[in-house]
């Protein structure tokens, strides 16, 4: 978080903005947990991100709460976020609030997972398949759901997938796998900032059916490996690889 001496977070919608990465950490997870409760109470669709950003022609990094809201700007929602932030971090800490348009959200999702989503995006973030088997050969659309911290230094990416993976091959009986966890197979590579496609990943599943919507950490025992796979930017690229 930035420590600029400002009374409250700024709320805005425009400007030339460069999205850098997701803002993570213990205090950030606490803020996310608090904001999830607020976003759950909204009657309109919300997707929320906590991101590092740069403004055009300014050589400094800011932290911003980036919100896609069904009807764009909402002053009351911004005010409620400000109140929660000040209560947690005091009046001298600073957080920008940015209401995203569609193009901005598309750019942001290349480097950042949402931490709350009451409505899935229309376009998948990438596509998963495996050239090595593991019952993962079918091409599946992947939608980023959230970043989880844990024992892996890069963290874990939780994704919703379609179509789901048939659970019988993994001893799950009739329970199919609708959400997976992916991590990079190679050191110094991150699934959260992919510079070169395809990216090579470990695929795992959670050992429990559902993960609380305000949970941002995961233990090693909560994850069970499913196999090795690759992720591609487009379905055509995934199909060509087969």
Secondary-structure topology with pairs:
Blueprint: E1 11-12, E2 17-22, H1 26-40, E3 46-55, E4 62-69, H2 75-89, E5 96-99, H3 102-108, E6 116-117, E7 126-129, E8 140-148, E9 156-165, E10 177-184, E11 199-206, E12 223-232, H4 235-240
Parallel strand pairs: 1-5, 4-5
Antiparallel strand pairs: 2-3, 3-4, 3-6, 7-8, 7-12, 8-9, 9-10, 10-11, 11-12
Helix pairs in contact: 1-2
Features:
single chain; 242 residues; alpha+beta; Beta Polymerase, domain 2; 2 domains; six-stranded antiparallel beta barrel; globular; disordered N terminus
Structure description:
There is one protein chain. The chain has 242 residues and is an alpha+beta fold. Helix content is 18%, strand content 33%. The chain has four helices and twelve strands. It has helices spanning 26-40, 75-89, 102-108, 235-240; strands at residues 11-12, 17-22, 46-55, 62-69, 96-99, 116-117, 126-129, 140-148, 156-165, 177-184, 199-206, 223-232. A hairpin with a 7-residue loop joins strand 8 (140-148) and strand 9. The model is unreliable at 2-14 (pLDDT under 50).
């Amino acid at each position: 978080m930035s420590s600029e001496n400002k009374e409250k977070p700024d709320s805005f919608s425009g400007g030339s903005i460069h999205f850098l990465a997701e803002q993570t950490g213990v205090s950030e997870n606490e803020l996310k947990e608090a904001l999830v409760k607020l976003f759950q109470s909204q009657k309109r669709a919300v997707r929320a991100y906590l991101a590092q950003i740069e403004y055009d022609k300014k050589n400094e990094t800011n932290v911003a709460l980036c919100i896609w809201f069904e009807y764009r700007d909402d002053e009351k929602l911004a005010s409620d976020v400000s109140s929660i932030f000040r209560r947690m971090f005091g009046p001298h800490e600073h957080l920008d609030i940015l209401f995203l348009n569609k193009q901005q959200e598309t750019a942001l999702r290349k480097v950042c997972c949402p931490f709350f989503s009451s409505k899935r995006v229309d376009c998948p973030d990438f596509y998963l398949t495996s050239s090595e088997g593991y019952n993962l050969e079918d091409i599946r659309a992947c939608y980023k759901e959230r970043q989880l911290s844990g024992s892996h230094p890069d963290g874990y990416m939780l994704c919703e997938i379609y179509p789901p993976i048939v659970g019988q091959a993994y001893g799950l009986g009739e329970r199919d796998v609708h959400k997976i966890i992916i991590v990079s197979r190679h050191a110094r590579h991150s699934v959260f900032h992919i510079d070169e496609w395809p990216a090579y990943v470990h695929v795992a599943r959670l050992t429990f059916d559902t993960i609380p919507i305000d949970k941002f950490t995961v233990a090693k025992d909560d994850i069970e490996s499913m196999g090795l796979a690759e992720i591609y930017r487009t379905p055509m690229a995934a199909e060509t690889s087969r």
